[in-house]
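User: My collaborator sent over this chain with a note saying "see what the structure looks like." That's all I know about it. Can you take a look?
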Amino acid sequence: MRARVAFSFSFRFCLLVVLALAMTLPSSAQSSASLSVAERIQKVMNRPEFAHANFGIEFYSPDTRKAVFSLNDQELFVPASTTKLLTEGTVLASLGADFRFYTHIYRTGAVDSKGRLKGDLVLVASGDPNLSNRIQSDGTLAFANNDHSYSGNALPGDPLIVIRQLAKDVAAKGIRKIEGRVLVDSSLFPETPWEGEGGGGVVISPIVVNDNLIDLVMTPAAKIGDPVVLDSSPATSYVKFINHLTTAGANTSVSLDPPQIKTNADGTVIATLTGSLPLGAPRKYAPFFVPSPTVLAETVLREALEEVGIKVKVATIMPAPDFQSYRRFYAAEAEVAEHISLPLAEEIKVTLKVSQNLHAFMGPYLLGALVAKNAKDPFKAGFAVEKKFLEDAKLDLSGASQGDGAGGSWADLFTPDFMCHYLAYWTTRPDYPTFLRGLPILGWDGTLADIDRTSPAVGHVFAKTGTFDSEDTLNDIVMLNGKGLAGYVIRADGKRLTFAAYVNHVHMRLSPEAAAHALAEALGQIAAAAYDAPLDEIAPEERHETREQR
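Assistant: Without extra context I'll predict from the sequence alone. Here is the result:
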């Protein structure tokens, strides 16, 4: 059964009149421009692929405090990565747009006249998600619209640029030899492998080098049966890849198996890669999520120190000490290097624009560790911070359920009405411009870069995307459990709406990527429906700046 539509009385009456008139007019007289929001949305929902799907949609005016369109707005829907709006919003509101992460390196002993450090060198992880080549000289964090964590191409430049600079700073302190170990104190919160959907094997950690992954580039050979050419970055002894990837026939599909991982006694790993690429296919990018971000960071830091001429006596990675006892060394007189992140506003932008799962997964942990100061259970403490933030905003939490920071938990459920009111609350905050700038823009950038690029609404829809799918083994097709889009529409007349559009339970006889794109197009069209359609209920208000006007 098609879900019921809940309109205001005046809107329902107007809609009935419009539909009645439409039945008396020739089809040529009904241009797309003359269709109401309801008619435009209904055209999308009438598509065959949505025959068994469930829609939940609301458009809401923050200025009049009225919903101008609603469909199942009080029902809970799988929101996928639109969940990140709550996580990143709470992090932004709690820490502030100008907040910076400070990553320090300390020595635990004296340095003699020959530059020998009689102790360990310890990097203290601060939760900075961007120890990578995202950092640009103009004070921004770069991103690719298709992030490398989603098998996109890595950003240009050295992914270890921050680590190498830290090593140079250590050398500048006159240290030439380390008699002890090179350690990473990642005790800010525990390393936690994400077990839910959408993580792809990522490990949540307060130390994040190159998004805790190794970028793989695979190119088919010139002959069927020959090994695929494999490149990896950053190059490090942390992982040894055994390449069993082969080149298959030109008419075959890409087939990549999950890596088989063996962990050595010193914490380094051996990863065996199997599968095939079609002959003549373009190069394939894929992330290898590292099993231990701490060991990766210790390895690349030690290698960077050796590159600048610092000898490390203890070459093997040993079990980590009790860092509680090391904290007496964490003082200015023992500091030998420091990295200061760019402002948090830049990190919010990266996470929302590309839907960076690891960064969003970290959100509750950062809130618990940095705001609640709870080292025992930072995850739950972080959600307590978020709950208070939402309660202070006077939001009805009966329309919200959340189990993680990124939208990969089956506990993540929101009503369109809750999400619209949450987004409306943000328009009242002084940091709203930062929040708005962080969102993907329809037809412009991030996960909306290639969506509805010919729509008049291009550049006027600022919204977070979300995709949550699974394999229907019975029918051998993709089940898109949830597809979402939530954010703001800046209308042609300058009026602003918040909106949330969800569609759940869609069978797609396409590849997961093609299915997700097709549904993103559909939700983009739903969002664009309110760009220039008549909305008589909205009272006059101030004009709101669009991307094109900026």
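A starting point for your reply to your collaborator: The chain has two domains: 10-79+403-532, 100-342.
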